[in-house]
Amino acid sequence: MPVANLIAKLRPPQGLAARAVVFTSGVMLATAVMCVTVVLWGAQRESARYQLELTHDLTLHLATVSGNMIARGNMRALNAAISGALGRDGVRRVYVGDPQNNPLAAGGGSAADIAAVTELSARALAAGHITYVRTSDGGLAVAMPIIRDGQTLGVAARMWDQDAYRFQAIPALAPFLLVLALLALIAIPLTAYAVRRAVAPLAELSKFAEDVAAHGHAPPVDVRTGDEFETLARAFNHMMARLDASMRRIQQIAFVDPATQLPNQDRFIRELDHFILQGKGEMGMVAVFELQRLPRLMQTLDHDAARDFLRVVAERFASATRTVDRIVRLRPQGEQEPVLARLGGMEFAVFSPSIGSPSDAARFAQHLNAALNQPFEWRGHKFTLGACCGVAIAPRDGRDADAALRHARMALGAAQNAAARVKVFTPSLDREAVARLTLEREMREALERNEFRAFFQPKIDLGTGRIGACEALARWVRPDRTIISPGRFIPVAEEGGLIGPLSDAIMREACWKAAAWARAGYPIKVAVNVSALQFRSDRFAENVLRVVQHAGLAPDHLELEITESVVMEDPDRALRVIRPLRDAGVRLAIDDFGCGHSSLAALSKLPFDVIKIDQQFVRAIEHGDPQAEAIVDMILALARTLKLEVVAEGVERRDDVEFFAQRGCHWIQGFLYGAAVSAPEFAELLRRQGGEDVESVDAA
Ligand code: C2E
Ligand code: MG
Ligand code: MG
């Protein structure tokens, strides 16, 4: 391991460290070279000066000695002195001449040396002082006049080799230079190492920054250099901690539902996508639950109470999921837990891996749905939330989370009418959904072209036997004159959000037509159906009253038919909604009475004017069902007590008219007296009835 560390340390430095090492090594090397150059140059200069000084001294000495000998006329001694001088190291030529520069004694030197020395001697004689010259081959010649007592006795000159009396700098300084080179050799790696060590924290900091950039996180950096690096590392760590906290907060906001602390839709989709993309060939169950009464309940609670209630719902959801998961799924050890989520407003979802068969998935969802449908006891109240559930199997029913969830929601749409209010997705649902979407698109266009019209079905007043009222029923009259019944388009309009404009159109037409008939002398009441969604709108009463006013219809000529189930969903709210209508004089009818689960107590408190007995009782009576007769009797008795008028609808046989007439029923509506017809046809009916009237009056 230490060897590996060492090798790692020997690795060439990179980046800033490498540049620092190269720079400092370069500076060191340059300094060393400069030192050597300066030393060598200095030595060279000094040695030249020394050579010149010494050669001048030696020439002076020769001039003095030669002067003595010339003065004494001792030419032999002069020649001996010159031979002696020639024997010295580096001396090339020695020359002594008379004042006219004729040689007195001379020796050594090449022809060029002789010429150079002779010429220099002449210059010295002419100048009267010491003179020197460096020849082209590097020789140094010095000449000096021999002067005694102011009289020139001659000239003395010498010539040396270039290197004579020179200081040999390189050999002399070699050990010193060697030591310098060695020091530089050692100092460069040492400096490199020191520089590397000094900038090492920078490498650590930049690696930290790179990790954060690449992966969004990195372990804290530990730098204790006591300098700016440590400050920087502390700042980095602090920044990272804050970034982590912010990220956690963002994750929380992005992926957790704040009210229930369950994962939200985005998180659910991620988990589901992860499972599907793993592609292990396993199937998992995606179940979407809708708690239909939840939004209404939420509307009645303040913010904190609503949150608290949601938390209770989420707890029930989680504990029920755990229980059901244990029962239905024989989960191998370590297998992924189910994922629960709140997808939005009233939608919750479970994803449970390794439930591949539709029957297991249905069983799981049914158990869970049943648990969610148990009443919630909260703050002394009991609530049932009306859960239903759509199930899809992933990836069988969706190659990605969006598709699987869409299909589960599609199944949820069909779950209302399914057993236990749970439906598992099948491809036919998809086809239905496509057909629905097409229908929805066509309906939007039809609304713009005003193809939704009110048709009117007469209601016969059993007291007079005449058409005293009618029910406006929506019809879609296609451009090819084919007529589509509301059974097909009302549910689609409710789902696609078109029910508002559609109902408004019918309501407007019904009110305008009834007002026109009243003006024409046929004051009959018109009943208009109210859908569940319309009734939930807070501005419902306001809208109705505006239409009535615009049309100029007497409010008591309008009757609103609200189905029993819609009223009983929330009787208190129903009362609040209908009160202003009732106060304005609008009549109110409970449609399809007998199908829902009316609480008699609630019914007695609601200010209705009319009960419409559902067609199913009329059908049952036709089949001689004694129970149906008993129920109809009860309804009529109830109506009498509450002073309500009763309409029997769907009457097709004269016998049934008898039946209802005998029991005190007020109104009959049914194909026996005519199906719903267009406004002009209905006006014609009224006119004809008016005509008969005149006739009967005439007869009387
Ligand atoms: P509903 O209010 O109970 O209307 C009575 C339905 O029974 C009408 O069907 C009518 O044509 C039918 N009917 C009347 N007499 C007889 C009979 O003797 N025998 C049989 N078998 N049926 C008879 P329609 O027009 O198809 O309407 C069905 C439902 O659609 C209505 O039931 C009502 O709930 C809804 N609806 C119709 N028009 C509108 C509307 O303008 N707005 C809203 N929100 N709902 C509407
Ligand atoms: Mg009706
Ligand atoms: Mg009805």
Count every beta strand, where a strand is a DSSP E run of 2 or more residues: 21
Q: C-alpha Rg, in Å?
A: 60 Å
As for the number of domains, it is 4
Structural class: alpha/beta
End-to-end Cα distance, whole Å, is 126 Å
Topology (SSEs and partners):
Layout (H helix, E strand, L loop, with lengths): L1 H9 L4 H58 L2 H12 L4 E7 L5 E5 L3 H17 L3 E4 L5 E9 L2 E10 L8 H47 L12 H28 L9 H14 L5 E8 L2 H6 L3 H26 L10 E6 L2 E7 L4 H16 L2 E3 L2 E3 L3 E8 L6 H15 L6 E3 L2 H22 L3 E10 L4 E12 L5 E2 L1 H10 L3 H21 L5 E6 L1 H5 L3 H12 L6 E6 H6 L1 H14 L2 E7 L6 H6 L4 E4 L1 H8 L3 H17 L2 E5 L4 H9 L4 E3 L9 H21 L1
Parallel strand pairs: 11-12, 14-16, 16-17, 17-18, 18-19, 19-20, 20-21
Antiparallel strand pairs: 1-2, 1-5, 3-4, 4-5, 6-8, 6-11, 7-8, 9-10, 13-14, 13-21, 14-15
Helix pairs in contact: 2-3, 2-5, 5-6, 9-10, 14-16, 16-18, 20-21
One magnesium ion binds next to loops.
Describe the model.
- The chain is α/β, with parallel strands linked by helices.
- It has four domains: 145 residues, Beta-Lactamase (2-Layer Sandwich); 81 residues, no CATH class; 161 residues, 2-Layer Sandwich (Alpha-Beta Plaits); 255 residues, EAL domain (TIM Barrel).
- Helix content is 57%, strand content 18%.
- The strands form four sheets. It has an eight-stranded mixed beta barrel, surrounded by five helices.
- Helix 19 links the parallel strand 18 and strand 19.
- The protein starts with a helix and ends with a helix.
- The C terminus is likely disordered.
- The site of one magnesium ion has 4 residues, from strand 18.
- One magnesium ion binds next to loops.
